[in-house]
Amino acid sequence: MPFGKTADKFRNASTRLRSRSEAGGMGISGVLLLLVVAAIVFASFKILPPYIDNYRLQDTMETVARNATYNRKTEAAIRKLIWDEARQMEIPIEENQIMVQVNGPSVNIAARYMVTVDLLVYQVDLNFAPAAGNRNIMAKP
């Protein structure tokens, strides 16, 4: 029986491999996978807040544009209102970066700003350009 000894060797080797994998040890690939997942989670925690703040600023701009259409606010008053909200959210924007245009029954608001995110080994510049507009549907063109 020449195949009997060979089969026993393979059975013993597979048993040793199984017992080694069940010992609870983590190989290099497991450590690398853990590091990659940790890096993705870290980057997400650093990059997501500016996007959430931009969404909130966009929502504020839409609300202000809608209200300013019917309440007849001046461009300066609208700009100051948006800038105050942006400062509360700690968005790095200056008052002169907020463009407001009131043309009769319509209001348009736009802004451009950049947020630098430090990821320890790399810095990412995120450019945002939220804008909103509204037109009074009851006004004559």
Plain-language structure description:
This protein is an alpha+beta fold. The chain has one domain (27-135). It contains 3 helices and 5 strands; from the N terminus they run αααβββββ. It has helices at residues 2-21, 28-71, 75-88, and strands at residues 98-103, 106-111, 113-118, 123-128, 131-135. It has a 3-stranded antiparallel sheet with strand order 1-2-5, covered by helices on one side. It has a two-stranded antiparallel ribbon with strand order 3-4. The chain is elongated and about 95 Å long.
Quick recap:
With 141 residues, this protein is α+β, with helices and mostly antiparallel strands. It has helices at residues 2-21, 28-71, 75-88; strands spanning 98-103, 106-111, 113-118, 123-128, 131-135. Helix 2 (28-71) packs antiparallel against helix 3 (75-88).
What's the arrangement of secondary structure elements?
Elements: H1 2-21, H2 28-71, H3 75-88, E1 98-103, E2 106-111, E3 113-118, E4 123-128, E5 131-135
Antiparallel strand pairs: 1-2, 2-5, 3-4
Helix pairs in contact: 2-3
Strand content: 15-25%
Number of domains: 1
Rg of Cα set = 30 Å
The poorly predicted ranges are none
Helix content: 55-70%
- By DSSP, the count of extended strands is 5
Largest sheet: 3 strands, antiparallel
- Distance N to C terminus: 99 Å
SSE order in H/E notation?
HHHEEEEE
Query: How many helices does DSSP assign?
Result: 3
Q: How do the strands line up in the largest sheet? A: 1-2-5
Estimated structural class:
alpha+beta
For the residues shown, what is the average pLDDT?
84
The gross shape turns out to be elongated
